[in-house]
Design a protein that fits this description.
This protein has about 290 residues and is of the alpha+beta class. The strands form 3 sheets. A 4-stranded antiparallel sheet has the order 5-6-7-8, sandwiched between helices. The chain has a two-stranded antiparallel ribbon with strand order 1-4. The model has no long low-confidence stretch (mean pLDDT about 90).
């Protein structure tokens, strides 16, 4: 779910004329070399870069992984398995958004977490949202602990240390109230122009012109003439889900600290209660007709 937040500073920088979605990664991260030259920011946003999974790269590099975030990103882009040519097909890839966070930081000349605080969280009023790497807040803030089910009950499943490798692309702590403020901001031009938001919610295209459901951090769907958008998230026993019906002005946001909780069925059930007299709500999250 953090991907919609990572995409926002890229969109802001594009509105300010600092970058283009069609800029190569190497323009901002020159150490990524020929690979970085062939991958465009749009490929990363739409999950069409062809980069191998960040988790596979992380496990393979293990103790030899670089120490700084910028070195990790350069190393990942140059060493990750290439699964297909950029733009050839869609394959969900956490690593692409790790790279985008680094690009945004370099383009803005500001650490990514500071950038998010100043450009997004404070402007929207998300005062209880922070990154896992902020150890002071992590320890001082009353918050839930992540759990997963095992044979004889539940076990604590927090493994937050690995989040440092993701450079802010997968390590956001928030609340339902703060996420509701975020969702409301997406109905306005508070952060970016209306036309910029519209492109994020449209979905991309492959090299051959085939349409994609995935936009900039959102799965954009349509069911019986009604558009809706979703995005899940999950880590270390935590799960999150946001469901939006923007034309009806309705959204459902669900958070859980139990990895086995059905976080898809709950938002759909809520949507049926509120919208069944106005639209046909999908029976499954990814109904497309």
């Amino acid at each position: 779910m953090a991907k919609q937040f990572v995409a926002m500073p890229i969109m802001i920088l594009r509105d300010r004329g600092v970058l283009s979605y069609d800029d190569p990664v190497a323009k901002f991260l020159p150490e990524t070399g020929a690979r970085g030259q062939s991958i465009r920011l749009r490929h990363l946003l739409n999950h069409t870069s062809g980069l191998g999974q960040f988790e596979e790269y992380r496990d393979r590099r293990n103790s030899s992984i670089p120490k700084t975030e910028e070195e990790i990103v350069d190393d990942y882009v140059t060493r990750a398995t290439i699964r297909f040519s950029p733009g050839e097909k869609f394959e969900y890839c956490n690593g692409g958004y790790v790279v985008l966070a680094s690009v945004a930081a370099k383009a803005a000349n500001m650490p990514f977490r500071n950038l998010m605080d100043e450009w997004v969280f404070k402007r929207v009023g998300m005062n209880r949202t922070f990154f896992a790497e902020d150890h002071a807040k992590l320890t001082a803030t009353p918050r839930a602990i992540g759990y997963s089910k095992e044979r004889f009950g539940l076990k604590v499943s927090e493994t937050l240390e690995a989040l440092r490798l993701y450079g802010g692309a997968a390590s956001i702590f928030s609340t339902v109230d703060d996420l509701q403020k975020w969702e409301q901001a997406l109905h306005s031009s508070m952060l970016v122009r209306d036309e910029t938001l519209a492109e994020a919610f449209r979905g991309g295209r492959l090299n051959d012109g085939s349409p994609l459901a995935y936009g900039f951090g959102w799965e954009n769907m349509r069911y019986q003439g009604v558009r809706y958008m979703v995005h899940p998230g999950g880590w270390a026993g935590f799960k999150s889900f946001i469901l939006r019906f923007p034309d009806q002005g309705f959204s459902a946001i669900a958070l859980s600290n139990h990895s086995g909780f059905d976080l898809v069925g709950l938002p759909l059930s809520i949507a049926r209660i509120y919208l069944s007299d106005r639209i046909k709500v999908p029976s499954r999250m990814f109904n497309v007709q």
